[in-house]
TrEMBL record:
This is FAD dependent oxidoreductase. The keyword Oxidoreductase applies. Pfam families: Pyr_redox_3. InterPro entries: Auxin_biosynth/cation_transpt, CHP04046_FMN-dependent, FAD/NAD-bd_sf. Signal peptide: none annotated. GO terms for molecular function: flavin adenine dinucleotide binding; monooxygenase activity. The lineage of its organism: Bacteria, Pseudomonadati, Pseudomonadota, Betaproteobacteria, Burkholderiales. Keywords: Oxidoreductase, Plasmid.
């Protein structure tokens, strides 16, 4: 990585990339191939999130072969395994060294505006810069969601958000309430459960899928079915799929299903959606059975689509099977006395909201999400990359970000070629270095 320690105030770049995660570094990779001068501004340090916002036993939930950052496909000995946290960091470190991006770390962007000449003015904690074009690569998970009811919990109860959870021993002795059953919530609940902690889980509406089905990883089947190549415009939900919670499954111990019903048989206590806390009691919606059934319906529906693919193509595979519930709640508990339950900690796993308040551009919808077509906005010179379902399922993952970054850099080149007087505002020396293919 080409760290930049000192910057001249108001230095100009053809492109400024905001965010130094896998998306921003992927854009830098292709910008370098196009010989376009640029600067990557990173609030913390490159790939910071992978290093600081994952629990100790974290591992990938998709097989290693799907790790395909530009010029850096997984080449290890276990393509169908699931890299653990330290292995993921090693994979990223090798990518960082390979890209050698021009990065300014510790540069939190506080404002992006445009001047009368249509240049972007980028204000950061490490200086002010200008650019012809901006690529926002800071992701879409910025502000942890914690409900206001959390303010009413006793101070004796430790509260952490999923990005802060590390391991069971880091929490005080006693039972733990995990709120949310998406990908992080289900895996954190499992981590606590396997450590021997008493876990109460408030189950949300997250779907689930099988890890292995009919002799293969479900991801392998879906890849053959070209699901991961489906653009968001072809998805039945269209842009609505961006709001969907990820299916829960795990790569832990070689990969397996996460079955909350099995956990219930083993002593985990399941509830419906957490709705309130008052008079010393946690109050839950009576929707546990419905949420479990809906998750299983998705599980069986995905498997049925694989069955259809196998039949259509005459593939020799083990027989089909349908998941049947191992356990059903005999009744739905609407309340839980906090003190009597012995709950000493709460882990909030209900997601994040985007925060692009620093970007002054008319591209956001009512929920603060940017409107774009495959990362290209209606505002000249403004692009996004690394968002969930920006173009395909893999857009926010190692598997699909290279394709998106290449597309964005191609769009940058096309814009520069079509409007050179507007975008090429750098010095003559800098202009001469731009050779988009």
């Amino acid at each position: 990585m080409s760290n930049i320690d000192s910057i001249q105030t108001a230095a100009h770049y053809s492109v400024i990339v905001i965010g130094g995660g896998q998306a921003g570094l992927s854009v830098s990779y292709f910008l370098q191939q196009a010989n376009i001068d640029h600067l990557v501004l990173e609030k913390h340090s490159v790939t910071h999130t992978w290093r600081t916002q994952r629990w100790d036993r974290f591992c990938l939930v998709t097989p290693n072969w799907q790790c395909a950052l530009p010029g850096h496909a997984y080449d290890g000995a276990d393509p169908h395994g699931f890299m653990k946290k330290d292995e993921i960091i090693a994979y990223l470190d090798a990518f960082i060294a390979k890209v050698n991006a021009p990065v300014l770390e510790g540069a939190a962007v506080t404002r992006v505006t445009r001047d009368a000449q249509a240049r972007y003015i980028v204000t950061s904690t490490r200086g002010t810069f200008t650019a012809d074009q901006i690529v926002v690569a800071s992701g879409g998970y910025h502000t942890p969601i914690v409900p206001r009811m959390a303010e009413r919990l006793p101070q004796s109860v430790v509260q952490v958000q999923s990005s802060e959870y590390r391991n069971a021993d880091a929490l005080p002795p006693g039972a733990v309430l995990v709120v949310g059953s998406g990908q992080s919530g289900a895996q954190i609940a499992e981590d606590l459960h396997l450590s021997g902690r008493k876990v109460h889980l408030a189950v949300g509406e997250a779907p689930r899928c099988a890890r292995f089905y009919r002799g293969r990883d479900v991801v392998d089947w879906l890849a053959d079915m070209r699901y991961y190549d489906m653009p968001v415009t072809d998805h039945p939900l269209r842009e609505g799929v961006r709001d969907n919670t990820n299916h829960y499954v795990t790569g832990r111990d070689g990969g397996r299903d996460i079955d909350l019903r099995r956990f219930a048989l083993e002593g985990m206590e399941l509830f419906g959606r957490l709705e309130d806390f008052r008079d010393g009691k946690l109050r839950f919606a009576p929707n546990l059975r419905a949420n479990l059934d809906d998750a299983d319906d998705t599980y069986n529906r995905i498997n049925a689509s694989i069955d259809g693919f196998i039949e259509k193509h005459g593939i020799d595979a083990p027989p089909a099977a349908r998941y049947e519930p191992l356990w059903q709640p005999s009744h739905e508990r609407a309340e839980l006395d906090l003190q009597a339950s012995g709950i000493a900690a709460v882990v909030w796993c209900i997601g994040f909201t985007p925060d692009f308040g620093w970007l002054d551009a008319p591209v956001f919808n009512g929920r603060g999400y940017p409107s774009h077509m495959r990362g290209v906005t209606a505002v000249p010179g403004l692009y996004f990359v690394g968002l969930p379902w920006l173009h395909t399922w893999g857009s926010g993952r190692f598997s699909g970000v290279a394709r998106d970054a290449q597309y964005i850099v191609d769009a940058i080149c096309a814009e520069r070629a079509s409007a050179p007087d507007r975008v090429l505002l750098a010095s003559p020396a800098s202009r001469a270095s731009i050779t988009c293919a």
